[in-house]
Specification:
Layout (H helix, E strand, L loop, with lengths): L2 H33 L1 H10 L2 H17 L7 H17 L4 H19 L6 H11 L1 H18 L5 H19 L9
Helix pairs in contact: 1-2, 2-3, 3-6, 4-5, 5-7, 5-8, 6-7, 7-8
């Protein structure tokens, strides 16, 4: 191969490499912007950025295939009343209130069209449309699991209820998401 052809091939390969690098950088930026802290959590958990990004892309495609719909005004009112009742129970029965909040969030998700299988799948689905509160959801669930083993304090249960409330309000389309502290 003559030097001129070799130079053209090298320049071409460098251009393709640069194009791919820019493509993957841009894709990473979009995913980080879309998923927020869930992006970092997934990368940390998987240990490989490209594999984690593939998982996040699959999540997004999965949720796009679901029939997620807004709630009718009557349903929003009914769920708000149920939440107020749940929250009022906390004083006398914190454990029961947290269990009820968990069930209520699952019911809202089901009514909106989210599949309500195992927790990890629910959290993954929520992370696509509600990345600002999925960390709260994970925190509330973790406390609920500890509560089932008798290892959660009343303060833990209060935090779980606050976490559930942020997701609940986000799913209903009311309030501003509050990130987990």
């Amino acid at each position: 191969m003559d030097p001129r052809t070799l130079l053209i091939v090298i320049v071409f390969l460098l251009a393709v490499g640069a194009g791919l690098w820019f493509y993957f950088q841009r894709r990473s930026q979009k995913l980080r912007s879309m998923f927020g802290s869930e992006y970092d959590r997934t990368v940390r958990e998987i240990g490989d950025r490209h594999k984690a990004e593939s998982i996040l892309i699959k999540r997004k495609k999965h949720v796009e295939e679901l029939d997620i719909r807004p709630l009718a005004a009557a349903a929003v009112e009914r769920f708000n009343r149920e939440w107020e009742s749940c929250q009022a129970k906390f004083v006398d029965d914190p454990r029961g209130a947290v269990r009820e909040a968990d069930h209520l969030v699952a019911e809202v998700m089901k009514t909106r069209g989210y599949p309500v299988g195992d927790f990890e799948q629910r959290a993954a689905d929520v992370s696509v449309d509600h990345p600002g509160v999925v960390e709260n959801y994970r925190g509330a669930h973790e406390i609920a699991v500890r509560e089932e083993r008798g290892k959660a304090s009343t303060e833990d249960l209060r935090r779980a209820l606050v976490y559930y409330k942020t997701l609940f309000e986000e799913l209903l389309g009311i309030g501003e998401p509050v990130l987990r502290r």
